TrEMBL record:
Transmembrane domains' residue ranges: 12-32, 237-255
Class of the enzyme per the UniProt entry, highest EC level: translocase
Compartments, record wording: Cell membrane
Subunit description: The cytochrome bc1 complex is composed of a cytochrome b (QcrB), the Rieske iron-sulfur protein (QcrA) and a diheme cytochrome c (QcrC) subunit.
Gene3D superfamilies in alphabetical order: Cytochrome c-like domain (1.10.760.10)
Protein name: Cytochrome bc1 complex cytochrome c subunit
Superkingdom to which the source organism belongs: Bacteria
Post-translational modification: Binds 2 heme c groups covalently per subunit.
Length: 259
């Protein structure tokens, strides 16, 4: 009997086990919960800073709440990627109204651009800024070339050198554009450009296209002077102005010599 009493569980054992469980749970929560709270607080502070920048630089066109205003479209739902592209390439704030916002010197540094993007993203769900793993190349160059020729070359030229569109608009040269901004342009479709979301061009497809353009930029021209890779237009202009001009000069010289 005494041995059975010795082996009997102590009445406080269950309470001790529960207390240990609470301590472990509380420790795990203390280890992980503050990081999430700090991240949420940081995002809120960034968006708040972006709101101040928005009111002083963007609200005159896009409205105090970003829902559109005097000449500026609504920014609700455009996402952080659209802001990062437009502001990061110097297209916004727009200096002068015109048929197309042209690339210029960025008016905001990276921190302020991120703050503006965070604020606009808080107005409504939209495309986010892509990760660096998708925008720094390393994709399938051959597949990217095929995708570019099918989806992009009709406007941007077979080598990404740009081209004219209708009504004074144009497709810009892509050789000096960063991979991040190329990805964001495909994702958001700025101005005359169509939107290539993940339904028609996957994230990997976009990465392949960027890799192809980076390869075009880096490769040499085995044929000599590429004339900007603009195709038959500069080549024809060269033939008419230089080639035919030289023939005319030779004909005039021969005529004078004969006389």
């Amino acid at each position: 009997m005494s041995s059975l009493v010795a082996r009997r569980r102590h009445p406080a054992a269950i309470a001790i086990v529960l207390l240990l469980g609470l301590i472990i749970t509380g420790g795990l929560y203390a280890a992980f919960a503050p990081k999430n709270a700090d991240a949420a607080s940081s995002n809120t502070q960034t968006a708040a800073a972006g709101h101040k920048l928005f009111l002083s630089n963007c609200a005159s066109c896009h409205g105090l709440d970003g829902a559109g205003g005097d000449g500026g479209p609504s920014l609700v739902g455009v996402g952080a990627a659209a802001v990062d592209f437009q502001v990061g390439t110097g297209r916004m704030p727009l200096a002068n109204p015109g048929v197309q916002a042209e690339r210029g010197k960025p008016q905001f540094n990276d921190k302020d651009t991120a703050a503006l993007a965070a604020y606009v993203a808080s107005l409504g769900e939209g495309p986010s800024v892509p990760s660096s793993s998708l925008t720094q190349g390393g994709g399938d160059i051959a597949k990217g070339g095929e995708l570019f020729r099918v989806n992009c070359a009709m406007c941007h030229n077979f080598a990404g050198s740009g081209g004219a569109l209708t009504r004074g608009k144009f497709a810009p040269n892509l050789m000096d554009v960063s991979g991040k901004h190329i990805y964001e342009a495909m994702l958001t479709g700025p101005q005359s450009m169509p939107v290539f979301n993940d339904s028609n061009l996957s994230a990997q497809d976009k990465k392949d296209i960027i890799s192809f353009l980076q390869n075009v930029k880096a490769e040499s021209s085995p044929g000599g002077w590429s004339m900007g890779n603009l195709g038959p237009v500069p080549e024809g202009l060269f033939a008419w102005t230089i080639g035919i001009g030289m023939l005319i000069l030779i004909a005039v010289w021969l005529g004078k010599k004969a006389a």
